[in-house]
Prior knowledge:
Elements: E1 13-22, E2 25-35, E3 40-44, H1 51-58, E4 66-71, E5 83-86, H2 100-105, H3 120-132, H4 148-161, E6 166-170, H5 178-193, E7 197-202, H6 205-211, E8 214-219, E9 221-226, H7 228-231, H8 234-241, E10 245-248, E11 251-254, E12 271-274, H9 275-278
Parallel strand pairs: 3-7, 3-8, 5-6, 6-7
Antiparallel strand pairs: 1-2, 1-4, 8-9, 10-11, 11-12
Helix pairs in contact: 3-4, 4-5
Amino acid sequence: xxxxxxxxxxxxxxxxxxxxxYDGALALDGVTLTVPHGxxxxxxxxxxxxxxTLFKSVVGLLRPRSGRIxxxxxxxxxxxxxxxxxxQREEIDWRFPVSVSDVVMMGRxxxxxxxxxxxxxxxxxxxxxxxxxGLSDLASRPIGELSGGQQQRVFLARAIAQExxxxxxxxxxxxxxxxAREMVLDLLQSMRARDVTVLVSTHDMETAARRxxxxxxxxxxxxxxxxxxxxxxxxxxxxAFGGQALFLDGMVVIDQCCPGHVxxxxxxxxxxxxxxxxxxxxxxxxxxx
Length: 289
């Protein structure tokens, strides 16, 4: 797949020659890709590669300089089927005085009637989302009192409550505990049965290769897009990560710990993936064959 593969009207998400910038610098430069209905796509790249910019553009939070984005053939914000977006945790003000159940109910706002008052069906859907993410006992707790993993689960519950057709998760595996990580993976698995189209940004190439249908390798421009075994090749990885990619004894080590490297210079855990694993594409159940 070269990034265009389908006509715009046939794809759930169609991005064409997208350019988005901040203060004169391009964060995304000529990105083109199509995402078919029900696909699960990992968006992989170093820090500062434009992954969050791509997601914010898809949901209409950023205005592109040029290019276009279509969801079911229509621009962002002009769809009947909602697009759920879970941003990175550091972008959220956790001091805001709101309870867990209130945050999850926010996922219903797009479906409320003219009076904007929750109906019985809205309360039931919120209760189901809380239960699904193991948050029922925390429903009345202020969001700021929760752990990082619990906060991540709250926003996943809000996304579920939206009953989305497209789900965007920005770095959901970063800074969370094992339980939260497994709940994200379980959620992605359940989305397959509902044919929800999913895009997840991550640094974890091994998870991307094992659990996702398609991978978009990004560093301001689209390096490669397609099945994991097509995308995760040494030339593509080197093009995306530059000097951060170290190939050692069949391992790929991504080093994002040092200032001066591509990225934000903040210390991050290394991501390791064996080449023989990175090359496997998942089946529709989300596991490598």
